[in-house]
Write a structure and sequence with these properties.
The chain has two helices and eight strands, in the order ααββββββββ. With about 140 residues, the chain is α+β, with helices and mostly antiparallel strands. The protein has one domain: Immunoglobulin-like (Sandwich), CATH 2.60.40.3230.
Length: about 140
């Protein structure tokens, strides 16, 4: 059976919309430059040398494991043309903005190539976590 090109496009679009609708996320929290207030809320750069050279975007969060655990996903980007060797780790905060299990998570090294981005995901250590921050430092 031969299906014309237009029908294939419509079926593809319907499939895509269905798949996207199945994802349960709270949506994008922030997309922007390092100076945007929403980015500053979720990004802490520990080295002046990296200031305005790396940023985060496409920040998404959802609850998993029965709606108790916060899972986050974001993009870490190098805004310069030169490679950056950085390390990152998440800080997790409860509803009163107190850090939960401070300093337990290890730093993860990554090489960010010039003008490149990587996707980073994290899962809160327990169900008391309501917010997060990504910490980034040079190696």
């Amino acid at each position: 059976m031969k299906i014309n090109h237009r029908v294939k496009k419509v079926l593809g679009l319907v499939t895509l919309v269905s798949l996207l609708g199945a994802c349960s996320t709270s949506g994008i929290e922030a997309i922007g430059t390092p100076n945007d207030p929403e980015v500053k809320k979720h990004l802490l750069i520990h080295n002046d040398a990296l200031a305005n050279k790396v940023t985060i975007s496409e920040m998404r969060s959802r609850t998993v494991r029965g709606g108790d655990m916060l899972q986050v996903s974001l993009t870490l980007s190098n805004l310069t043309s030169s490679d950056k060797n950085v390390q990152y780790r998440f800080s997790w905060f409860d509803s009163d903005e107190f850090e939960v299990e401070a300093g337990v998570e290890a730093w993860t090294p990554v090489n960010l190539h010039g003008m490149a981005s990587i996707r980073i995901e994290g899962l809160a250590p327990n169900s008391s976590v309501k917010s997060y921050r990504l910490n980034v430092k040079g190696q």
